[in-house]
Amino acid sequence: MHKVIEPKILYFGTPVVLISTLNEDGSANLAPMSSAWWLNQSCMLGMSRKSKTVQNLIREQECVLNLPSADLVGAVDKLALLTGANPVPETKMQRGYSYESDKFGTAGLTPEPSDLVKAPRVAECPVQLEASLIKVHDFGEPSSLVSIEVAVTRVHIDEKLLMTGEKNYIDPEKWSPLIMNFCEYFGLSGKLHPSRLAPVFGPPSREEGSRALS
Ligand SMILES: Cc1cc2nc3c(=O)[nH]c(=O)nc-3n(C[C@H](O)[C@H](O)[C@H](O)COP(=O)(O)O)c2cc1C
C-alpha cells in the first residue's frame, strides 16, 4: 500500500564527499556534501551559492573531491554545522551553524599537497579526485542552489582499493563509501548479486574471462 506524502527532503542515499577548496587568503576550506553524482570523468555537485565552498570554487576554478570511507564517519560529523563563510549567512545562523577557519584541524584530518590544483587533498580519504570547474548551472530557481559541473583531472586511490594485479581498476568489494541516507550516516551492506554490467566495464582480463565462461 503506497501513500502520497510531502517529505521535506528527498535524500535517498548518496556518497559523502569532502570538498577542499582554497580561501582568498590561501588557507584551505573543507566541507562535507552528498548531492553528488558521476558521469564519465565528470561530477555534478549540488550546493548553495552561500557556501564558502561554492564561492571558492567559482573564484579558484578548482577543488579536490575527497571521498571518505565509512570508518571516517566521526571526522565527517565534526564538520557538520560548520561553515568557512564569515559572517555566517543568516539562514545558517538560524540552524545553529558557526564559522570555523580550521576545518582540517577541527575534524582531525591531514592536508597533503595536490598535484594539479592548489587546494590540498585529505590524506585519510582513500579516494582523492583533483577537479576543475566546467560550468555552474542555476538549480531550483528561485534559490541559492546551483549544480556545479567539474571535470576530474587526476585520480588518487589508496592502493589497497585496487583489484589484485590491476593498475587502473578499483575493486568495489574493497571500497566502503560513507553514505548519507536522508540525514543519517550509513555504509553499504555488501554485494547483493552478480552484475551483468561488471564484465563490460571491468578489466579486460576479467571481460575475456567472463566471455570465455558464457
Ligand atoms: C554529510 C553531509 C552532507 C551534506 N550535503 C550537502 C549537500 O549535498 N549540499 C549542500 O549544499 N550542503 C550539504 N551539507 C551541508 C554543508 O556541509 C554546509 O552547507 C557547510 O556549511 C558548507 O561549508 P562551507 O560553507 O564552508 O562551504 C552537508 C553536510 C553534511 C554533514
Automatic annotation (TrEMBL):
Domain of life: Bacteria
Domain Flavin reductase like: 12-160
Sorted UniProt keywords: Flavoprotein
One Pfam entry name: Flavin_Reduct
One GO MF term: oxidoreductase activity, acting on the CH-NH group of donors, NAD or NADP as acceptor
Organism annotation: Paenibacillus albilobatus
Cofactor dependency: FMN
Protein name: Flavin reductase
Protein's UniProt keywords contain Flavoprotein: yes
Family statement: Belongs to the flavoredoxin family.
Xref: InterPro entries: Flavin_Rdtase-like_dom, Flavoredoxin, Split_barrel_FMN-bd
Gene3D superfamilies: Electron Transport, Fmn-binding Protein, Chain A
